[in-house]
Design a protein that fits this description.
Helices cover 30% and strands 27% of the residues. It is of the alpha/beta class. It folds into 2 domains: 233 residues, 3-Layer(bba) Sandwich (FAD/NAD(P)-binding domain); 138 residues, FAD/NAD(P)-binding domain (3-Layer(bba) Sandwich). It has 13 helices and 21 strands. The strands form 6 sheets. Strands 1, 2, 3, 4, 5, 6 and 21 form a 7-stranded mixed beta sheet that branches. Pathway: Siderophore biosynthesis. Belongs to the lysine N(6)-hydroxylase/L-ornithine N(5)-oxygenase family.
Length: 416
């Protein structure tokens, strides 16, 4: 079997940015990417009307690494003959639909290197004389056939998996309960639903609430917090998403890294844009004006249990303020409960004997022992060591440059 220099697992923005960086840095083109989706799509089920990016378009796939790149958002606008019109919008924040179109435009230029519809199931070691010399990447294609490919290096960029609360674990096959990551698809499958519960208090929950409001559903927004908190995106706080801040975080002691993550938690988790919060507040205010309580904001409420019935989903809720419990029925429940980023642990489990857990070095490479020759890089799985920007677009261009440089250094050393 041919041994690829690089196999990228996942072909979202992170590995797309890496493909661009490798091309522009003149590295060998023997790179292959495997993506489980049938075509490129970036959070397709959250491409809602009137939603916009939360970071500047300048933090695109290439700009911070190479402002002259032909893969920047500005070059995309020029190619689409929309640059002047976009300038007239006077914004740094394009619509989410437009940014998704930009990413898909860039991905199409690497179609020959990407195999869509392949879900990677395992990464196995290949041993020669007691040394792991390369890796066997196993995947299953859209027809159920198992594919095997060999690689000297891999970059794992699999994104997050929906975080499902324990009380909803049994609803996996119930179309009336679904995660925000499947929002548009799940909503389209609902039949005769009018009363919907949205659980969560972050950006996704807020966007879904407003979308359902616009579609004339009756919505209860259920959250354990007292309020929907605004994301802190002030200039000094935003410095934590600068590329050089990654160095600062990485070189701190583990306890200090954890403290930094906790201190800046409200920049990214369980928060929403201030303008969106104001829209939601206005919805509830207008209800008071009209005397029509179509929606409820059930703050400081816990979901104690959930039960499926023919007539709907029964939620047992606990009011933390009064200490009272009650049961209410919904036609559907949407879980805007965030993501877990642990999939790489199970994917790379067969390599555990040669790795130092999931510890990584500064260049996102998993640390292996002397018997482990391949290089395994993580994109989006290093928040604990590299900071809050690791799962976001902010450092994507710079990170791809660093991983590309590390791969190039390995190839150069092997050639000596």
């Amino acid at each position: 079997m041919h041994i690829h220099n690089l196999i990228g697992i996942g072909f979202g923005p992170s590995n797309l940015a890496l493909a661009i960086a490798l091309q522009e840095q003149g590295h060998p083109a023997d790179a292959l990417y495997l993506e489980r989706q049938e075509q490129f799509a970036w959070h397709p089920d959250m491409l809602l009307d009137n939603t916009h990016m939360q970071i500047s378009f300048l933090k695109d796939l290439a700009m911070l690494r190479n402002p002259t790149s032909r893969y920047t958002f500005l070059h995309y606008l020029h190619q689409q003959q929309r640059l002047q019109d976009f300038i007239n919008l006077k914004t740094f924040y394009p619509s989410r639909r437009e940014f998704n179109d930009y990413l898909a435009w860039a991905a199409r230029q690497f179609a020959a290197q990407c195999h869509y519809g392949e879900d990677v199931s395992a990464v196995l070691p290949v041993l020669e004389n007691g040394q792991v010399t390369h890796l066997n990447v196993q995947s299953r294609d859209r027809h159920g056939r198992v594919q095997e490919r060999l690689a000297r290096n891999i970059v794992v960029s699999v994104g997050g998996s929906p975080a499902i609360p324990d009380s909803f674990a049994a609803f996996k096959d119930d179309e009336r309960v679904f995660h925000s990551s499947a929002y548009l698809t799940g909503l389209a499958r609902l039949k005769d639903a009018r009363r919907i519960a949205v659980i969560g208090a972050g950006q996704s929950a807020a966007e879904i609430f407003m979308d359902l409001h616009g579609k004339n559903f009756n919505v209860d927004l259920i959250t354990r917090g007292r309020a929907i908190k605004p994301a802190d995106d002030s200039p000094f706080i935003n410095e934590i998403f600068n590329a050089d801040y990654t160095d600062y975080v990485f070189h701190q002691a583990p306890s200090e890294r954890a403290a930094l993550l906790d201190e800046y938690h409200n920049t990214n988790y369980a928060v929403a844009d201030t303008a969106l919060i104001e829209q939601i507040f206005n919805v509830f205010y207008q209800q008071k004006v009209l005397g029509d309580q179509r929606h409820q904001f059930l703050r400081r409420h816990d979901v104690v249990a959930a039960h499926a019935e023919a007539g709907g989903i029964q939620l047992q809720l606990n009011d933390q303020e009064s200490g009272t419990a009650f049961t209410t029925r919904y036609d559907a429940v949407i879980l805007a409960t965030g993501y877990q980023r642990q999939k790489h642990h199970s994917l790379l489990a067969p390599l555990a004997p040669w790795l130092d857990g999931m510890a990584v070095d500064r260049h996102y490479q998993l640390i292996g022992n002397a018997q482990f020759q391949p290089r395994v890089f993580l994109q989006g799985g290093c928040e604990a060591s590299h900071g809050l920007s690791d799962t976001l677009l902010s450092i994507t261009a710079i990170r791809s440059q660093e991983i590309g440089a590390a791969l190039h250094a390995t190839a150069a050393a092997a050639a000596l």
